[in-house]
Amino acid sequence: MEKREQQFSLWYFIVVLFILMTIQNFFISAQVQNLSYSDFKTLLKKKKIVEVTVGKSQISGRVLTEGLREVLPENKIAGLEKNGAEEHRFTTIRIDDPGLTQELEAANVRFTGKLESTWITVLLSWIIPAVIFFAIWSFFMRRMGAASGVMEIGKNKAKIYIEKETGVTFDDVAGIDEAREELMEVVSFLKNPEQYRRLGGNIPKGVLLVGAPGTGKTLLAKAVAGEAKVPFFTMSGSDFVEMFVGVGAARVRDLFSQAEKKAPCIIFIDELDAMGKARGISPVGGNDEREQTLNQLLVQMDGFDTNKGVIILAATNRPEILDPALLRPGRFDRHVAIDRPDVKGREKILKVHAKKITLSDEVKLLDIAAKTPGFVGADLANLLNEAALLAARKGKASVEMSDFDTAIDRIVAGLEKKNRVINPQEKETVAYHESGHAIVAMSRKQADPVSKVSIIPRGIAALGYTQQLPTEDRYLLKKTELLDRLDVLLGGRVAEELVYGDISTGAQNDLQRATDLSRHMIMQYGMSEHLGLVTFEAPISPTGFNMMGAQGKKEYSEKTAETIDGEIQKILEKAHARVKKTLSQKRALLEALKNHLLEKEVIERAELEALIKAHANDTVETD
Description:
Signal recognition particle alu RNA binding heterodimer, srp9/1, single chain, six-stranded mixed beta sheet, elongated, Rossmann fold, 4 domains, 22 helices, alpha/beta, Helicase, Ruva Protein, domain 3, 14 strands
């Protein structure tokens, strides 16, 4: 049965403190009257003292209340009358008085000595307050859900979701159908294990989800637990590793111990690369805390039996740095790759997230999916939220297509900054630059078509942008297609050069991307006739990381490096010549598009096509 969590309130502590103080004042603490030594001697002479205990530094005992009325002021007497006792306890500071013993005997007062112990004083003044402080501190830490105290530092920090508490099923997962089908087998085993055991089969001990950030790895793991309706232990890889040596290993043991008690259940370790990085690549070396934690995880995965119903899921976006021992059969023996969704997958994801949003009848999710190539599930969820916020800000009753277009521009290019002051000369330069991109893109058959051209500043440094949207998802690109893309990247720089005979800093990003594309063509794709069928870079993982990581180094000579640089330069020079020829032939179109941009600031595809058609006969032949 699920345990109900108790919520902490500061009022609990205040009420308990008030009750303790009340008990202390009225029930526990005795009413002790402090007397001066002269008052004590006066009461002793009048034979009002009943009993005395003589200590090293003070004298205490009992005195008749009748005698206290004779020596105490009126305000003290009123308090004694309320008490109503015939005798009252007292205490006074002892001074050097050699005749005190004789006076006590003369007054027939029974007296005793008191042996005072210094360790009791230390105990009362230091240890007990420290214990009380530690108890209160522990109480606060437990109630506020902070990390457990020093005595519980080896306990795991896993959050436990019981049955339907994940709130996620396979109905909430879209666009990654192949990965979902792989994990449905895990759900089937947890629901009906005998179906697999009767033929002697064993379910995989561990399933590793691999994919780029935002593709839905954590969501998919929660959906598995929600479908199977079993306890779900979730923890990040970084939660295991602490500054204290041995803590991570203790937490791993504790996690698996709890999981076996709750079986059948699912253990989900997010960001596995935080604790599962390959051993021996640490720059400081040695057997550090992270390696001990990893060793313990390997031992635990070998030691438990999947037939008990404990399944381990883990997620990472950097599989290339994981320790090989984690990936061998018998541990994480099934790897599920979660790729970026295609246009149909993006449409399905949009349908899932759009259930909570009021959409206009004109909105077509397929069109939005086509405008968002490369977006993952998290990006699409953010897109819908941004569009809804924009519509709400304008007071609309529903989210319209224009809101989605604005949200896409905001996510891709950055926040629109209409108030940024740009002098006319710079604005004209930006207009020529973006016109160059657009004209070259529309002149290349295999380049992505232009959807929008804008000279409104966006983001931190973008003074304008040309938006291209692919007509379909592409997984293979030919050399001619890459060259067309290279031409488009250089279109803005060449337009400035052609018009002004000078160049600006605005093409920095374009040149960076053009250089990277040329380098990949030579070093990865083997598209150099001079170098032949050779690659010179380490393979790239599905998530875009260099498989050699930080340890990578060049596997070719300096002479080959010079040749590579020469081939890259040759590709860029040829592209520059092609683009310059195109823009020179269409100089009239370049001027017209520039003027149109300066007037309207934003041009859509239909206007661009009409402008190109109007200047179709203005082409100038060049050598």
